[in-house]
Amino acid sequence: MKKLIDLTLNDFKLIYRTPSLRAFLVMPGIIFIVVLVLLPMLVENFPSVEPYLPPILIVATFELTQMFGFIYCMVLIEEKETAVAKIYGVLPVSKIGFVLARLFIPTLITTVLTFILLEAQTFYPVAVVPNLVFSLIAGLLVPVYILGISVLAKNRMAGMVWIKVFNIAVVIPVIAFFIPQRFTPLFGIFPTHWPYQGFFSLLEGEAFLWQLIIGLFYLGGLLVIAVRKFALSHFV
Amino acid sequence: MIKVNGLSFTYPGTDAPTLKALNFDIKRGEIFGFLGPSGAGKSTTQKIMYKILHHFEGEVLIDDKPLSKWGKEYYARIGVGFELPNHYLKLTARENMALFASFYPKKQIQDIPQLFEMVGLEADIDKKVEAYSKGMKMRLNFIRALLHNPEILFFDEPTAGLDPMNAKKIREHIIQLKNQGKTIFITTHNMYTADELCDRVSFIVDGALQITEPPATLKHNYGRDVVRVDLEDKQSAEFPLQGLGQNPQFLAFLNQAPLLRINTLEATLEEVFLQVTGKALKI
């Protein structure tokens, strides 16, 4: 527990002392303002926006994952670039345990923020249990995103490119809401497709749990692969 | 303490092996060195020994226990001084040390300010590492390896990037560590470092060990046991070391003109390296 706290404090020190990363910490605040203040005003003044609320809400919620996704990618890639990662490779800690401990707090914070946002939004009532499942899926996206990019990117420049690619992959399943339904399953290859569809079904009062469960397992599987790949490549 | 038998390693995606059937052993309390040019396989060997690279062939035993059988407790016994400075630049030097200290058992941790004092960084302990020069960062690398008072130390080019004064200090500290009973494995392409520090040195070229001997033995075996005498009138001559004091020709030569210098013609490690391997050290 003490190691987890030390690591988290250290990460927050690094983030706070890097202006570009510190600026990113305001992102959830912006999303909260958009969803809780601007979106209601928009709907009130332009009722034609209302049918598009579910996809807007879904994408806005998943954008919450981008804050820690981006910040921690940069921290880990810099660690690799400056060879600090090698030091962790020769410490008396389990590599996989270290990775999981390191990403626990950003995952937890993202889950909590997602839960609060869905509780606080005034458009649709969302029961606590589905909200928790959905928030957990959103939270799980954070370590998959961070580890995936950190494995693929050799330096910060490459990291920025991969972040763009991953951002697109996170958002692209929203297209499924605007195309004929028979083409929707094509987007199932993207892990965020399942929570998007599940959340939409939830808002529409349809069966949603199975889609959320697929999303949970999909992201869980990706997380296992990402942790293993990361543990093999990051400390060398 | 450390035994290596038939160690071979090939990096994934390459055909040629980086290490070819290395055999060596390191005794407890010994400073053992790998001397070789860049790309010879020195760092790769160390990376295998501190378990960063896996899937090697052969056998590595630490206290008669195969390396693969050692768990994370192995890392509490070893300290690694990396070749290049690697620190969190946005953190102070003290914060860097404190963070890594938190991973070791408390009873093992040495007094951090004292370590800084040891390498002359006490005035800079609370400066962010980004404000450090390369030499300061290397000294920080050095004391980080000692932070948890390990029994076995791996130093990869321990004096690289240091000015002569600090390089000398680091060499003195390494000798002190040996005197405390630490087992030390150094890789270097710097013959002075190898010559001054190592009890035994192995020459490594293209992933293969050529010879392992104490530096003094190598210099003796490959050098010439003669002295060269230069006089101020530009005359010079060589005389065998044996019986030098009773050699009438030597004594007569000294009386011919004022003496300029007398040198032994012992080989340097670099010359021995060239003779043994056919390759120059500084590639």
Q: Would you give an account of this structure?
A:
The complex is a heterodimer of chains A (236) and B (283). Chain A has 10 helices and no strands. Chain A has 236 residues and is mainly α. In chain A, helix 3 packs antiparallel against helix 4, helix 4 runs parallel beside helix 7 and helix 7 runs parallel beside helix 10. With 283 residues, chain B is of the alpha/beta class. In chain B, 31% of the residues lie in helices and 26% in strands. In chain B, strand 11 and strand 12 form a beta hairpin. In chain B, helix 8 crosses helix 10. Chain B is globular and about 70 Å long. At the A-B interface, helix 1 and helix 5 of A face helix 2 and helix 3 of B.
Number of strands of chain B: 13
Percent strand of chain B: 25-35%
* Share of helical residues of chain B: 25-40%
Oligomer: heterodimer
Mean pLDDT of chain B: 92
Q: State the major sheet of chain B.
A: 6 strands, mixed
Q: Helical region count of chain B?
A: 10
Estimate the global geometry of chain A from the Cα principal axes: globular
Rounded Rg of chain B = 22 Å
Low-confidence stretches of chain A: none
Helix content of chain A: over 70%
Euclidean distance between termini CA atoms of chain A: 26 Å
Find the biggest chain interface.
A-B, 22 and 27 residues
Question: Approximately what portion of the residues of chain A adopt beta-strand conformation?
Answer: under 5%
Regions of chain B with pLDDT < 50 over 5+ consecutive residues? Answer: none
Structural key phrases:
heterodimer; A: 10 helices; B: 283 residues; alpha/beta; 6-stranded mixed sheet; 4-stranded antiparallel sheet; 10 helices; globular
Topology (elements, then pairings):
The complex is a heterodimer of chains A (236) and B (283).
Chain A: H1 2-16, H2 19-24, H3 27-45, H4 53-81, H5 84-89, H6 95-120, H7 128-152, H8 156-171, H9 193-203, H10 209-233
Helix pairs in contact in A: 3-4, 4-6, 4-7, 4-8, 4-9, 6-7, 6-10, 7-8, 7-9, 7-10, 9-10
Chain B: E1 2-9, E2 19-26, E3 31-35, H1 42-49, E4 57-62, E5 65-66, H2 74-77, E6 78-81, H3 93-101, H4 112-118, H5 134-146, E7 152-156, H6 164-179, E8 183-188, H7 191-197, E9 200-205, E10 208-213, H8 215-222, E11 226-231, E12 236-240, H9 248-254, E13 259-264, H10 269-277
Parallel strand pairs in B: 3-8, 3-9, 6-7, 7-8
Antiparallel strand pairs in B: 1-2, 1-4, 4-5, 9-10, 11-12, 11-13
Helix pairs in contact in B: 8-10
